[in-house]
Amino acid sequence: SSKKIDVKYIPPTSLSAITRATQTCILTNGSPVLSNVTNTNNIEIGNYVFGTNIPTDTRVINIIINSIVVLDKNATGGGNQSLTFIDHRGFVKKVTGSTSSDTLTISNGDTTNLKTDMIVVGNGVAQYTGITTTGSSTQVNIFPSQGLGNRSFYFYQGKGLINDSLLQFCQPTIARCLLVNGAVNAGNTV
Fold it and tell me: At residue 167, what are phi and psi to the nearest 5 degrees?
């Protein structure tokens, strides 16, 4: 198509805004298939999945309506498990921690990939709580200040959808500039 794609991103405001579904499913150890999914309403391809026996950063890759959900990673255990499906649009990561005043301290996870001006969402977190990174691997500053006990926190982009997939090619330590003065044959790597 020659038409522009218009994608509007509105940062999430609450835990209920990012929770697409909570569903009890049957897991099979070593399999990516969730069976006995009786209600697939609101579950979307790309959603992140959290729960017991689900590896970190697991996502939905296929859905058979009201029957089966296929993940991109294999379950690490089996049985009936209650799983939570989280909106993937703007999602950065999930950690466990607590807040005191203007500091969020992470007890399970780290600050890798977190950047200033992202937002944090969680049970009891004030709407549009922003973060400022401090260089610490276990703490970020939050605003407004709040005091929350140990719980899960979900980090999202604060200002729009960001695609960092090409960043690995823009590292100054491996970047090289070339000046070609003349024709170069296709396939030439020197």
Answer: -60, -35
For the chain, give percent helix, strand, coil, nearest 5: 5, 40, 60
Q: Is 92 in a helix, a strand, or coil?
A: strand
CA distance 147 to 94: 19
Query: Is 90 exceeded by the pLDDT of residue 171?
Result: no
Distance CA 28, CA 7 (A): 37
- pTM above threshold 0.85: no
**Residues near 21 by Cβ (< 8 Å), separated by ≥ 6?**
39, 40, 41, 42, 43, 84, 85
Q: What are phi and psi of 85, to 5 degrees?
A: -105, 120
- Residue 59 sits at φ, ψ, to 5 deg, of -130, 160
pLDDT digits (tens, 9 = 90+) for 105-150: 999 999 999 999 999 999 999 999 999 999 999 999 999 999 999 9
Strand partners, 131: 142
Q: Assess contact for 44 and 60: CB atoms under 8 A.
A: yes
